[in-house]
User: What shape does this take?
Amino acid sequence: MTNTSLSLAGVFPPIPTPFSQEGAIDHAMARRNLALWNRFDLAGYVVLGSTGEAVYLTTDEKADFWEMARSAIPADRLMIAGAGCESTRETIAVTRLAARQGADAALVVTPHYYDAGMTSQALVHHYRAVADAVPIPILLYSVPQFTHVDLGIDAIVALAEHPNIIGLKDSGGSVAKLTEIIRQAPEDFQVLTGSAGVFLAALTLGAVGGVLALANIAPQACIDLYRHVVAGRIQEAVAVQTRMAPVNAATTSRFGIPGLKTAMDMLGYEGGATRSPLLPPSEVDRETLRQVLVAGGLL
Amino acid sequence: MTNTSLSLAGVFPPIPTPFSQEGAIDHAMARRNLALWNRFDLAGYVVLGSTGEAVYLTTDEKADFWEMARSAIPADRLMIAGAGCESTRETIAVTRLAARQGADAALVVTPHYYDAGMTSQALVHHYRAVADAVPIPILLYSVPQFTHVDLGIDAIVALAEHPNIIGLKDSGGSVAKLTEIIRQAPEDFQVLTGSAGVFLAALTLGAVGGVLALANIAPQACIDLYRHVVAGRIQEAVAVQTRMAPVNAATTSRFGIPGLKTAMDMLGYEGGATRSPLLPPSEVDRETLRQVLVAGGLL
Amino acid sequence: MTNTSLSLAGVFPPIPTPFSQEGAIDHAMARRNLALWNRFDLAGYVVLGSTGEAVYLTTDEKADFWEMARSAIPADRLMIAGAGCESTRETIAVTRLAARQGADAALVVTPHYYDAGMTSQALVHHYRAVADAVPIPILLYSVPQFTHVDLGIDAIVALAEHPNIIGLKDSGGSVAKLTEIIRQAPEDFQVLTGSAGVFLAALTLGAVGGVLALANIAPQACIDLYRHVVAGRIQEAVAVQTRMAPVNAATTSRFGIPGLKTAMDMLGYEGGATRSPLLPPSEVDRETLRQVLVAGGLL
Amino acid sequence: MTNTSLSLAGVFPPIPTPFSQEGAIDHAMARRNLALWNRFDLAGYVVLGSTGEAVYLTTDEKADFWEMARSAIPADRLMIAGAGCESTRETIAVTRLAARQGADAALVVTPHYYDAGMTSQALVHHYRAVADAVPIPILLYSVPQFTHVDLGIDAIVALAEHPNIIGLKDSGGSVAKLTEIIRQAPEDFQVLTGSAGVFLAALTLGAVGGVLALANIAPQACIDLYRHVVAGRIQEAVAVQTRMAPVNAATTSRFGIPGLKTAMDMLGYEGGATRSPLLPPSEVDRETLRQVLVAGGLL
Assistant: This one.
């Protein structure tokens, strides 16, 4: 259990979970997606993160989905399991389950329902308890657009000292926050951005990679952007970042997971339905989305 | 399945779930609490609502807790089960489970993780699907301080037409909103406030009762307030409302569920521990709480 | 300079400032409005509050408008001047000016541009400095929907001890907050609500009156509501509150000051234009507004 | 009146306005500051922006301060006047005044008091009316941390077509937003960031410069960062950005304008007092600030 054995450098799609119109999980669709993505030089996958509608799955469904995913993901690519729950005890149980199903690491979202009680002290206590109790390394995960909890710099820096906490996915989009975390945390603490809209900036400032919904539909563009920055080709990176900006906005903040899944369907992947209460995009939104994909050179 | 058979008039404590220091549910403690509360003229209980730390329980734990609670709650008092989950399908499954365990009705919180997707349209679709599929009547439940989703007046009024949606618990604290709902909804749609701080105002304006965390520690005061308003004794009601205001603030917004449980311990109930990541109150906070209870005449 | 000499009991319209299409202030229109309002049993007027578009007027324009208003307001009715500015020194200067123009009291909104700096300590310091320096009593004014600063209970209670701070206008709409202020503040500290949607509740709980935009278009309904509550006729009060709820929503939160002025025009008052950048309501919004006024029995 | 004549490339400090302990503006202190800053290769100055406590000054005070500043700023450096007010008409009047006092351009903050009414449509109307009526070019200015209004991408792109609107200062800190504006706006539309914490990222993605509070106390570091990015020395730029991050945070979001002025005093500039209601930093905060300045290599 050491931090140094697991590199998070590169691009990770947080893969969607395909459902039938009746709401059943369709493993075959997911396998076809993974087969397509495996052709690209992705560092691995986040399986059952926010984009994977994890909050809509039962624990048994999670176990089955991770098992399927592990069998479809090459051994040299990471499977990072979205394993955070509201309670510390359930987070530990689900993370252990993910480990048994072959996850290399777990992504642990901040608990958030009682957000007034989720002080830095409470969150540090939670993450330490989880990290102490599970057999795989964990990544902190701050995504205030969903949780309304923004894991603070001080808490992150304190937790970065823990030998089993190897990194952070921050989806808040603040590059100033990333800069300060990278400055203060130990050098082997690995920061990933969860926001494709700041991928270039985050990489420039020292993030090692990204967990990007955009990588589900534009894996090569995300990889290109990553490589350009690593090689110091900033102008080329800016060109990719700028071209992808509207595609990313459309498939995340603007049309949400239903928009991302619809874009996948349009581009030859298997998006499938969302689970209720998420609704499919309207016809008007679908058409806007199609135009954005065309303008971005994907369709 | 008719609306008219179930009256929600009166006071309902949303009961806390007692845990041991190790985090196990303690049914015996809960039974002792219910025995104490049963001495008061309460209309019933909400079991596994927000105050019951429902988000920290597994489905099996919920089933066992409801079974225990039903056996301890007299048949002439309502057991309202907190049954809302993120997905429509899990909400249906859990509500059916609650019905099997003897719940008279279910309290269904708004789904909220993907809050940008929780449009009025999505929420109306969700609640109708749930109401259509379950054997017990449901109450809508809007609690933006936890969910950051405020179920809108238009959605509520539309849903109030459904024969299996008998009422609403609104914890947002806006009496202007309550007024407008009561004006627009069918006469048999029953509105409960979830905010003891506006209980008098809500009752005056036509709410039929309240689901009040305060009723766990001050059941008689809540019942007195209710009776005063029903009998038109406004000045007496104001006196109770005013005296209880700081007690209510301290055991809800100020010190949260840990504060409420600590107050229960101080007052002869069995509060027990919270589950992690909720932390117990500090010694300073405990002392403040004690003083508030003394000033409120409870201790 | 004593608190007891000035009663704030009753209904105060915060009068709009009529502008020509070119944006000039039209004193004649304002005089005609005041003549109409003077026929009702209003306690007085707030002149150049938020509803008066005070932030769009120069100091000279304020001086002239107060002078005009004072000459049109009977001596036995209060003229409360909206005099708060961002800086303490300008607030003092403008309040002194208002006093010279005949204002009986000043309504002093919380400074707010640097809201992170507007701590309780800073606001208490500000209000004390103003209250010490001006020749007329002042009212605290908290209106978070515009300022994003919510003057806290502790600050209000501390300031209520000052001999020249006679009351509070709270427009946040929280009756729980009002209850707590009334409980803690000295008995002669007078609380007004700025939210017609909670007028009944506020009066019941001990507020002495209201500064209500609604009173500009429905003065008699507001007075009726006030009298019903004072006389203990709660059911009659509820009927008025409920009937006026949609009218109030439409002319405040929903369509803003442009909506209120349009409603005034429809009802025989002189609303006039707003100043830019506020835009007039669309035709669709005007029609909705008309229907709301008809449904409310005003048109 | 053409866009192309005025380059906004480079670093602009938004200079603070020094006050005596009694709150009087001290021109001599400001002159001494400008003399010090003039030794650096700054592109110009923003005079009476948010950092200049403009909301605390009367119009006469603004006129005098701009006149003084113009006389102390070399002709080959820009004086950009913070001229935005709540009303369109006052914004025009104050911008004309700034032009008479020698301002090269005006920075026009979004009106915001009636924020629900500040729709894209209203803001576009406002800015066009101002741009049409004033003799100097204007910059749009979005600073949601103060105004709670975030000028939207669509409005900015529409306004960028106006011949007298030459650029934007965006202080919201979203580099994704900047990317999209730069992608959509005409090539000669000049984007400045107002957030030193994202200066590197913004420049990389196509911003031409920054209006940085940090430049008041660390002008050379800001200039170095700018030059490194322009010359493609990204690693050197990252080093400066990282070193300055805590200094910037301390003198903006953490301790506000009082913190910035205190830092100026510590570093040999003339910070002076703030105007009330802003309070000076506590002794503890001063000490923290001093340590941050030492760690940043400034002290």
